[in-house]
Amino acid sequence: MVIKRKKVCPKCGRKLWLRDFYRLANGSIYPRCKECTREDKREAYLRTKKVPDRIYMGEDGRLMDHRGVRTSIYWSSYMLETLKRLYPTTKNEDLAVILNVSSRTLIRKARELGIRKDADWQRGTSRNHARLAIFQNKIRRNSGMIRKGERRSPGTEFQKRVFRHTGAEG
């Protein structure tokens, strides 16, 4: 009977003595050496360790606010004032660039603060978009309406729908 005294660690690839490997409760030997196991444990701890509540600079250059297990964008008083002042009469995409946040984050914060878009500004913006669409259609010589006998998408027009019933009737 041959007794193995050395083993190869699959992570680092070194051939080490068996004393350099941890023993499991059932008597078998842990596959990775003690050094690699410690390194794995250290990395896992750093990934999951609790950090104190604080405000810090994120990797993307934004200020982040960490509270408990939740991390979110830190809204400074300047950002909040700018949001309250400009949100009612500014496009979300433009304001998001000014505040360096995503449009979705901007909308969520506005809802949280109870800020709404100005109704007159929205009507004016809609009118401008409609005028622009009419102008573009004139340039393309497109009236926007389908005339009698005209076919825009013959592959999808007036196809008979087939409904299939799936499932058990009760």
Overall pLDDT score: 84
Q: Radius of gyration over alpha carbons? A: 32 Å
Tally of helical runs: 5
Residues in helix, %: 25-40%
**Strand order across the largest sheet:** 5-6-7
Number of E strands: 7
Pattern of helices and strands: EEEEHEEEHHHH
The largest sheet, given as strand count, sense and whether it forms a barrel, is: 3 strands, antiparallel
- Gross morphology: elongated
- What structural class do helix, strand and pairing data support? alpha+beta
Low-confidence stretches: none
Characterise the protein shown here:
- The chain has 170 residues and is α+β, with helices and mostly antiparallel strands.
- It is elongated and about 95 Å long.
- Helix 3 crosses helix 4.
- The mean pLDDT is 84.
- It has helices at residues 34-48, 77-86, 92-99, 103-113, 119-139; strands spanning 6-8, 15-17, 21-23, 29-33, 54-57, 63-67, 70-73.
Q: How is this fold's topology laid out?
A:
Elements: E1 6-8, E2 15-17, E3 21-23, E4 29-33, H1 34-48, E5 54-57, E6 63-67, E7 70-73, H2 77-86, H3 92-99, H4 103-113, H5 119-139
Antiparallel strand pairs: 1-2, 3-4, 5-6, 6-7
Helix pairs in contact: 3-4
Q: What's a concise summary of this model?
A:
38% of the residues lie in helices and 16% in strands.
